[in-house]
Predict the structure.
Amino acid sequence: CMYSTLHTVTNKPLASSRRCSSARARAAVLSFLPILTWLPSYPVRRFLFSDVVSGLSTGVVQLPQGLAYAMLAAVPPVYGLYSSFYPVLLYTFFGTSRHISVGTFAVMSLMIGGVAVREAPDDMFNVLPANASNMSATVDTEARDARRVQVAVMLTTLVGIIQILFGVLRFGFVTIYLTEPLVRGFTTAASLHVFVSQLKYLLGVKTQRFCGVLSIVYSLKAVLWNITSTNVATLILGLVGIVFLYLVKYVNERFKKKLPVPIPGEIIVVMVSTGVSYGLSLSDDYMVDVVGKIPTGLLPPAAPDFSLFPRLITDSFTVAIVGFSMDISLAKTFALKHGYSVDGNQELIALGLCNFISSFFQTFAISCSMSRTLVQESTGGKTQIAGLMASLVVLLVVVAIGFVFQPLPQTALAAIIMVNLLGMFKQFRDIPNLWRTSKIELAIWLVACAASVLLGLDYGLLVAVLFAMLTVIYRTQRSQSHASDLSCCFSAPKVPCWGIKIFHSNSSIYFANSDLYVTSLKEKTGVNPEHIQAARKARKKQEAKANDNHSSPPILFLRLQYGKQEVTREVSSDNHVAVQHINGPVGDSCPDVDSEVVHLKTPNAVHSIVLDWTPVTFIDSVGAKAIKQVSKEYAAVGVRVVIAACSRSLLAELDTLQFFTGVMTPDVMFPTVHDAVLHCHHSGSCPVAVAAVAAPPPVEELS
């Protein structure tokens, strides 16, 4: 009988989950097309002007970056413009972040360029002049560039397919193995590769482009070997551009609160250098390399060259994971800042669709850019309408005035790329900080950087991930013990504790499981700060609507569910609490008024959460940041997070990681769970939720 009852109970949710309904179909559509969740209620008067200004500002930055990063991808500059239009347009419909700016990205472009050069090196396109056996062979640049475009397009197609499959299979968690020190070390190494690759354009020397192991050494050696053939006009123009862009970035950062929009230094450099090049005929008279032919209009769709599939499949996995890790890290950062959430799996699908569909229109793989995202957010961007406007700016250039940029010197684009690397070079400051806080994470940073510099970005990333996994094994198996004196022993009467949750997880907290720990904490406790904030915003919206209509204040009903019984609480706008008991089954309707109904798992107002860290043996900087961030989120909704049963070695690690700052002070640490519960019971109150209507249950422990 017990088995049949259990079988019936456990199969009901499964049967209901498999049942198709209009609500499930609608949820699936909204999940696949997030634009449908916010566009119907888009506040035109409040958001449209800000989004338009932000989009125009971002588009002005995206235009020169698209031209410049195409050089990194080893394809003609116009393909950078294509990659700055189609993916940005598609992300507006499929992306879940409201603030990131997708498009060309230096690290991704460099990785694609390395693959393109490997598959289509200059040696494959040497042409001997007719009737001139004593002359050296020349490179057929048109045939070479066409082949490299085919390689980049096919790689982008595979990247899109992989990202879509990962998103459908819910593999968004793969990026947890790219811990923050690893990513920062890897991107620092990538910035060094990018910087060295642009030296030949800055100096105006002709060198071969290298890829693979020690490519950065060979590239630097080739530039230094040919430095005597430096084009002085090219060097002067590039240095002037670098100095100007650096000063503009300094002014934008120093006076960002006073400037309505950042000064568009990149587009100024592009326009001025193009005008100077055209007016002084730098290409003809001074042998300055320029962008060259930019065809007007968009290319018709074409199928990729699938014969390249076997040679590119390994590279596509690397590019897909790196691109997604960059996207999701920025998306989560700005989502936390502005109080909304992003779906990692939907972001994978969105990036995959952007890459896959756009590849048929001759684009290369994209991700998001920190510099453009900061511009889009700082100029007032509220939604991806800003990204849509930025893509239209690029479209205008492609279909109408692209030919204007044909005299643009390549050294100006090199200057733009080099100055944009300043933010990544600042990551070298991580070394002294990690030395003070975590030697193991410093080792991860150094291995990721050194391996990526010497072995190339693909092999370097693989070595870094393997090393990070080895550190996890080392930390997990390293045992620490200590003896402690029991200074006091006491017994306290059992008291009913109302609104306290104890969360227990049988694992340490580090980069590989920090997101899972936070997600499980919110699910098990039933207290999600995002949902509480959303309920508050909905209530404020109702109050504002009621004030506009000169009607009575809205009523908020909170329905709290106890199995088949439920309690409905009516909260008016003046914080008066009227309690109504409904003893019928779940599903009885509330009074027929405009109301917001929130289902909670338990009828108690949680004011304190105790984290039981008895099994936690170590924590890294990523885990510490995750705990601090979730504590800050809970503090914003009036829920206090305290930590109990923390070992001495773990306390020392937390102190080294500078954990006790902001909302996290030493006062939140308790020697036992019992002490933490007593403290929360005596000092805690319910600052956010309504008053209790029934006898409080005992403390609920969650594992």
Notes: The chain is about 55% helix and 5% strand. The first helix runs from residue 2 to 18. The chain has a mean pLDDT of 80. The CA atoms of residues 276 and 282 lie 8 Å apart.
